[in-house]
């Protein structure tokens, strides 16, 4: 009988010996490797934090004591120990839990967390709420070293020192962000590791926090000892623990960057398949070529280079023309803006979900200063993923900021043409919503110059109905046109708007002549997005407008076809709505 | 003849003796006090940085060497020395310059900057651009100690250490943010001041930056020496200078918080007038009362308590029920959300322009977690102020995030009722757009309960035209109704939408019966805002909709009446547009 069989809740750990806790850790590690290799997920960060999590739950009393996991990349052991082991043991239940902490799953999860650098701030709030209510319990934040470079983490740590009471900040230092760490702070962490915490110049102490160092982050005895030492601490204290990313899984330990988040089967597959052409690979090829031609070209990413195909090899080729600034999206935007102001040619790449972390920098540091940096927004679109990683808010976010030109290419040729123009021109801050999905072309004709701004492209001219298919959804627009022809004999006009940030008022005006209905299709949230602007434009006229896109909600792991059904984003439902609207006019 | 008469550009300083530089500094100080006392502006921070600015321009060569001023609160001496002294000498030219650095004013200003904590990031970008182009010049960031708590400042400092080249970060440490500093970092700054920079635990060194300390920040000889020492530094270096906020102006030196930003005449007026009733004072009274009743109530501000009437006296009365987290808006939101999750009753107050600094925290830390914290957004509305401090983007920003209920009260009673409901309820994240301007009531009837959500209030029922006057603009809606009656005999329906984040679909549906035109009026940017959603709602119907509000642009010190004219926000222009639209239907 395994030890894990006896453990259903954290209190079950209390009866175990230290040796049993060790065995349990090994069982959990093996279970994690097996399960994540089947489903995919965050492998290497979780493997580094197995013993520490077991020790934490052995020493503290969750859920009375509150544990806040930063970005949740190291929360799998916590999940296994807090009533969710079946979701790791039983393949039929694998998909029933999320990859992140989630209060709907368990009282042991304090927050939905999927963006980094938030744990210290959230823990300070829980600690202060405890103090205001005269309660006594421990509040523990678990932060990876990679998350420490984020501004919110710093703000939280800085403010934690103001608490005159208990808060325990566990820093899981595996010497890696997603890619290798960058930034001055990481040299201090290295110094602290080298000196076993004894160096007098100490980032955490400089913020007024007490500090304890543990060098052997997989040693159960010492982990228990250090947590017992800080338990009920009356002061804010940092527990800095050195761990090994990917611990116990040789391939992951050897290449923790590739095994940070893995695809199904990655552990057991010897040779990963060479990647097919993708928008990431197209971008890499383009940037390598540009960099060869022009030393002013520089590619910037905030900590997620792998998502854009910026492998260690590519990074080496780009040399000084590459900056991974670490998890520091705000800095990334200001930095890119200033690079452009200084005459360089910056191309900043961020995922849609993380571009949210930079609104004020997009607005103040970049757009207000009108600097011609280029921002590539990846993975923008309605997604069936976790509520913490949706890609459907970037159009409302970016397109309502003055000065920014937000382009929505529909396929390969158009994307590359827009990227090329964006980098050449010197007049506008330009963001590009990189198409999502398989590389394709949709009949949109690229052009060399995207000035004058806000000129939509008519793909095919018809009458009665005009379909505006923005970016990814031009394809859907084509299907809708075919459906209208089939169902009602309507030859609709199909338009590629190209610009998410402005309207082609002249074209929209002309449409009034031979059309009675305009459909807007956008792969994102309708609220605050593109289509509403079209509706507003036609408000004073008799033109009917139907806006299609996602509703304003945090969808959580709902399959894409279900979402398309829910939001009326299939050719059949759109056609049905359009014909009903036309019928009502008659 | 004064020294200042001889100085028109920075190079004119090179010919002066150190004694003349001292006299010049005194002249500039007196000029600044005189001018700012007439126009209002940032007084105390500028007075503390006169000598340092003179010394910087003496040692470095702007604009070849680049100087980036954080938040620009200490840039007045820089402006005087770089061709803009007439704007301080000649009252007729006072208003021709902005209170912030502005590249349109001078080649010596690298960026438009009005939000804090950006200088290090921007300077890193300029330095990297220089390196990529093989140029040689100094890049200098000037940062106040108060700005260091902001996440972006940390991200910038952390990344500065990655530069293997010149960047000089001047930290102007006057031991004050706007209000007294909070956060652990400030204890380290205090330690460094006490030890004259010798303490081994050093925040800046922990980030991998070289470090120089100057205790006498008003000593011209030493300032010149320290800048000469770091000039052309081949490594990132911090110059930590102790200065005195308000230096040379006794009232400002004594009470630097009140004299951080002053109203006209504040220096010479002995007794400031007691403030009339304002939305800030109403809020203070309410929160004091609530705090007496319930120890769980806590008021949070990120560094600008004065803007909300949270004087030192009020803060003392609130006691543990008050947190000024310093310039750390991101933390403030996550902290408030977690306080609510932990059972406390947080009320977070932020200015509209600064709420932009928190999009991801509003979305992920707060809205996604659905925690019932209360956010008060102050100074929201179209403003005639500087482009860096506009209040017209908060509706697009907040109202398109799922789960957040964004209320727009129209006057005193309704505001207090909404605030009371927001604090009582336990179901929703609630933001309130605090009315702007003189305290008034506009006929809107407050109610005890704002659930169910998105129920608009009909103020007066008519036909033909319905006017939706959101928040501050219900007043304008009343005027428009009167004007329609007067000009065209139309008795319009007047509606108070109350919710900026959702539509009363039932009421909007009913309006179709007896109305042909809906006007939406919002005190903010139309793009992504409230009105477009109404236009989208009616898109499939024959209802005409006209959306009124600000256009998507960064307006810069344009008088409010001019903006209202430009955006058609007067009763006459709205009425004219409405009647033209009605005429076109017939």
Model description:
The structure is a homodimer of 586-residue chains. By secondary structure, chain A is an alpha/beta fold. Chain A has three domains: 4-246, 3-Layer(aba) Sandwich (Rossmann fold); 279-433, 3-Layer(aba) Sandwich (Rossmann fold), CATH 3.40.50; 457-585, 3-Layer(aba) Sandwich (Rossmann fold), CATH 3.40.50.920. Chain A is 38% helix and 16% strand. Chain A contains 23 helices and 18 strands. In chain A, the strands form four sheets. In chain A, strands 9-8-10-11-13-12 form a six-stranded parallel β-sheet, with helices on both faces. Chain A has a five-stranded parallel β-sheet with strand order 2-3-4-6-5, sandwiched between helices. The longest helix of chain A is centred in the first third of the chain and has 22 residues, at 18-39. Chain A is globular, with a radius of gyration of 26 Å. The N and C termini of chain A lie far apart (74 Å). At the A-B interface, helix 6, helix 7, helix 8, helix 9 and helix 14 of A face helix 6, helix 7, helix 8, helix 9 and helix 14 of B.
